[in-house]
């Protein structure tokens, strides 16, 4: 099959017509200003399955946080019993950049997390609260904002 082109009218390329008319098809568009999005200060991670699998998944996450370029601490508030100095050593985590804090009770864990976040001494504060209601979220976000830190809550369903 052969195609014939008409020689009487030359075919213009797609933009030749626009250029010939001195119109810039996208020249009048103004760049959009991105709305200033609120920085997310609180993240949650839920791990479920066998405890061995949860431990295997948790180790690289904490290792990445512990090796962050930020010179501040990675602070762990009320970590589960398996997460000890010995476990950190076995997993190859930099224990010199990690602080483990054990509160006296559940309410103390929340208070301790907020103090650690607001102090600005930690780049990330990891907590293990089962559920976070709106008020708790607000407190953690406000404290994290104050200390320019991240709050990470991990729920283990192991």
UniProtKB/TrEMBL annotation:
The keyword ATP-binding is annotated on this UniProt entry: no
InterPro entries documented for this protein: Cell_div_suppressor_SulA, P-loop_NTPase
Single Gene Ontology BP annotation: negative regulation of cell division
Annotated Gene3D superfamilies: P-loop containing nucleotide triphosphate hydrolases
Record has Cell division as a keyword: yes
Coiled-coil segments: none
Any Pfam family the entry gives: SulA
Keywords tagged on the record: Cell cycle, Cell division
SUPFAM superfamilies: P-loop containing nucleoside triphosphate hydrolases (SSF52540)
Protein name: Cell division protein
